[in-house]
Amino acid sequence: MLGFFKKKPGHKDGKDRVVVLGIDGVPCSLLKRFIERGMMPNLSALVQKGTLTDMTASIPEVSSTSWSTFMTGVNPGRHGIYGFTELRKGTYKWRFPNSDDLRSSTLWDIAGRHGRKSVIINIPSTYPARELNGILTAGFVALDLKKATYPESAYEYLKGIGYKMDVDTRKARESAEALAGEIDSAFEIRKKAILHFFDTAEWNLFIGVITETDRLHHYLWNALDDEGHPQHGFFLDFYKRLDGFIGEMYERTGDGVPFIILSDHGFTTIKKEIYLNAWLKEKGYLKFGKDSPESLEDMLAESRVFVLDPARFYIHTKERYPEGSVGPDEYEGLRRKLKDELLALEVDGEKVVKSVFFREEIYSGDLFDDAPDLVALPCEGYDLKGSINKDRIAGKGFLTGGHTREDAVFYINRRVSRKDINIVDAGPTIMSLLDISGNSFDGGSLV
Amino acid sequence: MAQDEREKLMELSLEEKIDHSKKIIKEAIDKFGTEKMAVAWTGGKDSTTMVWLFRETCRELGVPMPRCMFIDEGYVFDEIWDIVNRLKKEWDLNVAIAKNTDVSDKAEKVGDMIRVADLNERNRREIAKLEYEEDAFPFEPESFVGNHLMKTVAMNVFLEDNGIKALSTAIRWDEQEARVEETFFSSRENPPHTRIQPILHFKERDIWNFIFKYDIPFCVLYKEGYRSLGAKGSTVKMADIPAWEQDLENTYERAGRGQSKEEIMGKLRDLGYM
Fold first, then answer.
1. pLDDT higher for A173 or A341?
2. What is the mean pLDDT of the segment spanning A316-334?
3. What pLDDT shows up at residue B257?
């Protein structure tokens, strides 16, 4: 009987297939905690069959950079995505990098060149969809489903089921109940789409990403440990449902096929947001021509440094910017001074910056010149921000959870002995499992 | 303008809103006359409504209607040309087409690459101002350079060549967050002129009520589900039901537009960026 079915690539013996389930913003420590509490029985069973470990994310620890690093297996100096925002070259106008700005081949580009098919659902920073050997529908920041999806037939299907590209965060800001409702419906439709393509499409590489976890954490992280919080139950229940989905995906995948679960960064409670541009203003490094600047176009030429989200420091050099004020002879001294001052920065008697990297310490490649000059990482509980219209250095925002570079998660149903895993290693691992070699990655295979 | 004043204007009845727009237009005509004034007309619902308001006001004042400026950015929907040509005749409008032909003549279709070196001095100067360093750029609505040359430069050249002192545009406060700071009159440089923005206080719903009450013709694309019309190829339908039947109050009017900067900024803000 089986002979009547069309042979799908790799379907028979599990070789030449890899399944990846992305869970945006899920910390490894949280999963371990929920496993211990018996809340995630499916994941718990998977841990017996493989390796669950923490992983570091990209720098900066934002989804666009981290997922781009995942999908290319190279550092931002090569793929070019340093964050969600950039300035248009030679100007002070905002620019929002999208998939056209990604300068390295993706895993599915490479797989496609080797005749393998891919299904890619909801990875952030893949909008607008580029042609591939397979199916792709893009994740955050996707604006229009049609442009987010390749090919047209996949768009027709998604449109038909009322697919939602994201939680409507505008509604989310209205109330916690509205947010819970949004997360709920986005998660349900996401699962439906993922399972549909999993079952009906031909693929060797399958990647489906759940982003509702990140939205849940940003807005309701405070509900996690507060039993009195009206959404506490929702938070815990959401993880039980996530566990249910992990179980369902694994059952359909089968033991023989490599199965990976990973996140793009961790999460923690925000004690305070730290507004780095306000700090730069206070230090005299940054000046605006207006009391409430709307963009960096309002910055005065004499400014020495500015920050783009989350903590990317750009020295206002004569070389790089039309009105730059910092000459080559001052550059080195200025960035050393900045680093020292940042590491010494205290708010209410507590240090807020854990580490500061010079760009050559973390980035390399053809797009190195586009890199920020310094990048800071926060001490636990501080959310570093590049807002330009804040007067105070520290404050509270509407989000209760913030990203961490540490404590992202990596799981595979194989033994992995290596420690110090970074998200840049995931891509090479996947390619190695697909038996595709000869690519120049920055990370290394874990299997 | 203070927020409460803006909100008050937005809560007026349709007739009160129309009266307020006419008052702004009268004030503009008093100040600038109609000779050196132009009305920016895209063929879309908002600017067509604005053109209607200008006609009414000019008729009441007994002055000639100022000319309309239509920017042909090279990728205009056929359905837009239909409504523009139809109303030009029916309403007896003087329509000037602003088009950067030095650029568009170099491309046969959208997506063609245009070499910077082939362009005239003005266009090359504009490209240099953008600090764009490549030798060529694609002729398409979302290309940074192409968009600037075909829209902004085409408009500026029209304003300069005709010595236009005041240009009326049909932007609205509720269209996008980035517009809430706009005022009915605002001065611009390069070239120096005044922007008249007489329908700022209309909501999307008001425009449709206005259109149906006064039987103002509109582009058929709205009936097919488009909410907001931009360039062909970068604008998509929001739904398969007519624009005015969609959930105007709870969804983005411009969501069907290509790569809306404001929308991306809104989404990023909601996750704590920007």
1. A341
2. 96
3. 58
Task: Report how many domains make up chain A.
Answer: 2
Does residue A122 lie within any of the structural domains? yes
Q: Across the interface, which of A146, A169, A310 has its CB nearest the CB of B236?
A: A146
Q: What residue type is A264 in one-letter code? A: D
User: Which of B131, B133, B272 is opposite residue A322, by nearest beta carbon?
Assistant: B131
Q: Where are the domains of chain B?
A: 3-220
Residues of chain B neighbouring A147 (CB-CB closer than 8 A): 236, 258
A188 and A79 in one domain? yes
Nearest partner of B63 among B89, B23, B30, judged by Cα: B30
Residues B100-156: tens digit of each pLDDT: 999 999 988 887 889 999 999 999 998 888 777 778 888 876 667 888 899 889 999
| pLDDT for the residue numbered B243 | 77
What are the pLDDT digits (tens) for B171-221?
A: 998 876 667 778 999 988 889 999 999 999 999 999 999 999 999 999 999
Give the C-alpha separation, A271 to A122, whole Å.
Answer: 30
Asked if A91 has any chain B CB less than 8 Å from its own CB, the reply is: yes
B128 touches chain A (CB under 8 A): no
Q: How far is CA A168 from the centre of its chain?
A: 18
Kindly determine whether residue A146 and residue B259, on different chains, have CB atoms separated by under 8 Å.
no
Residue B274 has its nearest CB partner, among A89, A143, A309, at: A309
Q: What chain B residue is nearest to A307 in terms of C-alpha separation?
A: B274
pTM: 0.67
Task: Give the Cα separation of A405 and A310 in Å (integer).
Answer: 12
Task: Report CB contact under 8 Å: A387, B271.
Answer: no
Distance CA(A149)–CA(A138), nearest Å, equals 6
Is residue A171, in this structure, part of any structural domain at all? yes
Specify the fold of B3-220. Answer: Rossmann fold (3.40.50)
Q: Give dist(CA A96, CA A151) in Å, integer.
A: 24
Is A254 part of any domain?
A: yes
Same domain? For A247 and A380 the reply is no
d(CA A320, CA A322): 7
Q: What residues of chain B lie within 8 A of the CB of A143, using their CB?
A: 255, 259-260, 263-264
Contacts of A385 in chain B (CB under 8 A): 272
Quote the pLDDT of residue B26: 97
